[in-house]
Amino acid sequence: MASLSHEFRAQWALAVPVIVVNLALMGMGVVDTAMAGQVSTTAQAAIGLGHAWVWCPLSFALGLILALDPLVAQARGAGDAEGVARAVQRGLLLGMLVALPVAGALLLAGPVFTWFGGLLQGLAEPGAELSALLDPEVAGPAAEYSRVSALGTPAFLAWLALRQTLQAMGRLRAIVIVAVLGNGLNVIGNGAFMNGWWGLPALGAVGCAWSTVLVEWAMVLGLFAVAWPLLGPLVRPLRPRAAALGPMLRVVRLGVPIGVAIALESGAFNAIQFLMGSFGSRVMAGHRTAIVIASTSFMVPLGISMAASVRVGHAVGAGDGDASRRAALVALISGGAVMAGFGLVFLALPGPLARAFSQDPAVIAVTLSLLPIAAAFQLFDGLQVVAAGVLRGTADTAWPSLLNFVGYWVLGLPVGAYLAFGAHEGPRALWWGLAGGLALVAVALLIRVRRRLSGDVARFDVEGAPAAEESGQ
Q1: SS3 letters for 57-79?
Q2: Spatial separation of the C-alpha atoms in residues 337 and 297, rounded to whole Å
Q3: Nearest CA-CA partner of 343 in 289, 381, 384
Q4: Is the pLDDT of residue 37 over 90?
Q5: What is the pLDDT, as a whole number, of residue 211?
Q6: I need a labelling partner for 443 at 20 to 30 A (CA). Which of 236, 244, 289, 305 fits?
Q7: What single DSSP character describes residue 133?
Q8: Which of 226-240, 242-256, 431-445 has the largest mean confidence?
Q9: What's the CA gap between 226 and 171, in Å, rounded?
């Protein structure tokens, strides 16, 4: 019991600042949605649509960078300072390599909206409201939002690599400071570019994108400035094997399943955002509000998941199987309890939550219809993300990817789409399909965690070379 208490304190000491960072970053999306709601329903819908497309390619790149979690954590647990530095440099290099194709995908937003909007319009009943993806007041600004967002891609991926490094090292103060300041800068940027403060042109949804790009570059430069005493020795000089092809490919092999898993999960949510477009801009805006509320609560178990990945990674690097199992147990209990509490909040306070983002009665009504479903899947959402973090700490990344594919794309989305369009059950059916997929993924990942940690787990070999050979370079 004493060891569990110690693990609980150690894990929450790491998780709390990570959660603060997550909430600060999520706060930018909350602020974007809330401030856009004061501009117009179409601006709110455009930001939701543009953001959904931005995250389609970006979520995969994010997963690649998350390979740093086990690499840095396990190297630190093993006392391998040079391994930490090589992992950081590879993460930054990998981020710059994938930034270009991600930015290229964002430039294709307009044709994608037109194609998918036409497909959805064909599924709609005769006389149905025009799909938001074909509405020039929504789709046009959303496409421009995506194109402008491409300018921030390198900064976001570099920030992520630095953040994951400091997080895995347990050095979080600089990340918290920069994330909180970035959140404040986003409010100012949105006011200036989206709402037209100080006599500037009010650019609506496109102004929101310019604000986001400004914040992304300010945050990565700010993190270098604030944390340079820690980051400087890690990013210079260039380690001899940091850019070696063999180790880089092994990092990619570790990171690709993480990227696929995240892309499958976020892609399912984004696909629902697109599908909601067939019900009109007000339904899309109400869905966006509900997603923002649910995503805000998700930041807490996501922080627990990241802390669990670090704690499990440290234990694996140190060769301590019992410690890795304790870390997993504490994380799963914490994540489940927190999300059960959020589910109760959603059931108790749906009206105030919905009205905080919009004054449009139709948008509020849609949000109120979706929040009870969000309450139903909170527990499963918390358990699945924490279980994925535990597995990431052991460098087990392939199974979560496969399970996400089955849960979201074989079960959740097809069932939800059939109920919504085939059985004419409407927007809520899409969410019920998603809830079913989340439940399946959560249960399957818990089973995988139990099997994975039933024995000792070896450190992931990224170098592919004996220690003696490495030290001689």
Answers
A1: HHHHHHHHHCCHHHHHHHHHHCC
A2: 12
A3: 381
A4: no
A5: 94
A6: 289
A7: T
A8: 431-445
A9: 12
DSSP string, 381-417: HHHHHHHHHHHHHTT--HHHHHHHIIIIIIIIHHHHH
Rounded to whole angstroms, the Cα distance separating 129 from 26 reads 31
* Pairwise CA distance, residues 160 & 173, whole Å: 15
String of b and e for 281-318 (b: at least 16 CB within 10 Å)? bbbbbbbbbbbbbbbbbbbbbbbbbbbbbbbbbbbbbb
Residue with tokens 């604030």: 226
**What are 292's two structure tokens?**
């923002």
**With left for phi above 0 and alpha for psi between -120 and 50, is residue 291 left, alpha or beta?**
alpha
User: Could you report the per-residue pLDDT of 260-315, keeping only the tens digit for each?
Assistant: 888 888 888 778 877 887 777 788 888 888 888 898 899 899 999 989 988 998 88
Q: In whole angstroms, what is the distance from residue 178 CA to residue 25 CA? A: 10
How much helix, strand and coil, in percent to the nearest 5, is found in the chain? 85, 0, 15
Phi, psi of 461 (to 5 degrees): -90, 100
pTM for this prediction? 0.77
| Mean pLDDT value across residues 385-390 | 94
CA distance 265 to 250: 24
* Tokens linked to 236: 């210079």
Query: Which region among 210-219, 314-323, 332-341 has the lowest average model confidence (pLDDT)?
Result: 314-323
What was the pLDDT predicted at 467? 37
The residue among 158, 119, 170, 129 whose CA lies nearest residue 42 is: 129
